[in-house]
Amino acid sequence: MVLGSMKLILRIAGHAALLIVVVTTLFWTALALPVFSGLRTPVLEKMLSEQIGQTVHIRGDVSVVLGATTHVRATKVEVPSETIENVNLAALEVLELELNLPALISGQIDIDNLIIDGLKVRLLTDADGMQSWVATNRPQVNTTALGIQNDTGGILDFLSDKTAAFTSVSLIADNETTGFEFDFELENLHLDQIGNNSGATVTSHGTVNGQSFQIKGDYPRGQPFTTNANFGAMQLDFNGSPISMENGGGFKGKLTLDTGEIGDLLELLRLDRDIEGRANLAADIESQNPKLKVSDLSTGLNLSKGQLLTVEGSIENLIGFEGIDLAVDGRLYPQGHPPETATDLKDLKLTDVSTHVVGTENALEFQDLTLTTNAFDNELKQIGPVRFGRLFRADNGNLMLEKISLQAGPQDRPYFLAKGNVKDLLRLKEVDFSGTMSIPSSLFFQGLSAKSLGSFEGSFSVDDLKGFLSLNKFDAQTVDTELWMLRTQAKLGNVNEFENLSFDFNLDVRDSARFLAAIGQKTIKVGQLKVSLSANGKQDNFSSVLALRSGKSQLSAKLETSTSGARPLTQGMVSSQSIELQDVRNAFAFVSRIATSFRQPGTSGVKHKVPKGKVSDLVEVEDFLLDQDVDVSIDIKKIEGQQGITSLSSHLKANNGLAQLGPVDVAYDGGHFSATAKMNIVKSPQLLSLQGTIKDWNLATLFNEFNTKYSAVGQLHGNFDFIGNRRSIEAYTNSMRGSASILMTNGGISTSLLELSGLGIFPWLISEELRKGYSKITCLAAPVKIDAGDVSFSSFVAETKKVQLVAHGDLDWIKNTISIQAEARKLGRPLSRSAWPFEVVGTLTHPKIKLLHHNVFQKRADGATEFPENRRSCVPDIDQLRQ
Q1: Which of these three, 179, 203, 222, is where a domain ends?
Q2: Which residue did the predictor score with more confidence, 605 or 333?
Q3: Are 290 and 319 in contact (CB under 8 A)?
Q4: Which one, 238, 422, 734, 822, has least CB within 10 Å?
Q5: Does residue 701 lie within any of the structural domains?
Q6: What is the pTM of this model?
Q7: CA neighbours within 13 Å on the CB side: how many for 730?
Q8: Which range marks the domain in which residue 510 is found?
């Protein structure tokens, strides 16, 4: 009974299964009939939609050729984007596929051997970053309406185990966010499955953006794979192997890239062909969802003009922009051919750059950034983090980088914060940046840790949108300090050409001693020091006003500079109502001490010799006068602090390297000095010539300077013409050559020894000069020649009412020697005996005066003996004789 029942059940089940097969077969057979064409379309749409995970529309016809392997053909097939309206992800003219009918009857969809013609694919990313191929709201589909199991992972998963042939393929990848567009026109694309489900091969050729393109890939299942692609002249190879699921899945391999000619690559990317050269890249790639690791990265960019950029390092996760560790080195000029050393701001060029780049989460940090120019090197320990907004291709073909933000200094309190854009990244042009600064004063001074000098805060803005670099704004000042106030405001329309300038600088050091103590320098009693400078100019003409106040002294300058000619020309006036020289010395010493305290790269812990505060420590006079022409008047009404000097008036002129200061008119001790200094900076920059005159110089002052035991009166007059090495006063004195002539009339000296020497002892004993202890000097003439320390003269003449003294000889202050012989005679008696001739010999520091104990007669070589009726004073009488 039971056995019979079981047979009945099996018979019924068998008939039912047969019925299902028959019904299914009849269903597909019916669908194959032309009359049921309208029913075939939605069934195929639903089947394909569930297979690829995207909605599929068939706008044309669907035909079915029934068999164990059923052939299906559809026309006008569309796959609309599920995220962007009115955009088709894909559209194709003809779709042919094979459907395994037995597998379908058993509940599985087995589609293979796809033939697709006239495929048009558009991968669009709109301006908001929305992608046409992503469906963020797609529901998870596990079963079909027919109860067929289905695990979908999108079109690529659908094709992964299929054999497919594509002809007349057009693929456009258009990214409105980055501006890049890739237009692939492929004659064919073949996806072939290797037998026994062992993997697949991909081959294709065509064009991309008008340049040739081909790809060949071999992907054996579970085995090492190869990928070779050519984009124009660019060669890309990626060879690797899959990672087993036990180890996390994914793949790893070696990527190599040779761009060929970079200009061709730029044209492929539809960028302006701004640079030429070649580039190569090699890296190990490891992809394990969701990370893409790059290690052993090495890339080199060799440009046609000799520039070289190399990058080495690794990136822990390229997709997440994490774990970046790169060493970057750039040479911006051909090797062995750097630009000439810059002597002007407009000639300054960046020649080399190197840095260590680290970063994560879309932020980069530039550590140990070293910038080398043709004038100096500078090392910045830390720049960053740097964040980038959007890198994209603009409509005009430029590669643009927007929304850059960077900082420099400690991350908790950066010194600089800046934001901006680079609208032409390849040529580093069309740059605009603005930002703020907050710099502690300790950053400027060595060894300064005290907060008493506060910090320097402000804002700035730069760009080159007009075709040249412009400083649109710079406004900064000291804060949180009572010791000093520094305020700077500047604008510069063209930085390279120094055009359209507006500049204001104000410095006020309220207590110079406390300020120097704060920076660790020896104090100077300068008191309050104030400096203000303003400069304005457009194109070829600039005006500037300088005011200096140190202690009780004030100095001002008004200058006009023109660059319209062949050489810059500065004209103007430097003036002061009153200057105390000690204030000026203190001011220069103060500024010099500040200069030695400034931090310099690579000098940490090094102590600098403190200069003595000379003008030459602060101003390179030679370079200044060599680079431009000058025509400046100097007028100082009152000078205090130097005995005898009361005022100064002069004129400084320089033209084509020929400089002249003078005449310099100095009032000194009731007299006047007028001198002109000249230099030929082009041919002999080390030499300085001095020419001038002396008028009404008080002889008493000169005797006091030499600490003689005699006093004297009289007014000296004369002229001089010297040339020497200008390196220092000592160098000039010891090297100068030339001549001088000193004259005096109506003077006197507190001794009667001149009378003794010329008259003899007995006339001297009854002379008025001995009784008064004073000799009146009616005239004095001293023509001398100077040659590197040696002073020689052949006819030094001094006269009283009764006596003429004639001396000759030389002295040398370098060798410390002196040898002078002197003879005195009665006036008008040159052939008579000299009563007491004498000589001065030995060293200058300890000279010895010797009286010559014999009568000295002289005579003319030509025998002349007649004395003229009109005698000339202060000319040796022996030279006035006639035959």
Answers
A1: 179
A2: 333
A3: yes
A4: 734
A5: no
A6: 0.58
A7: 1
A8: 498-616
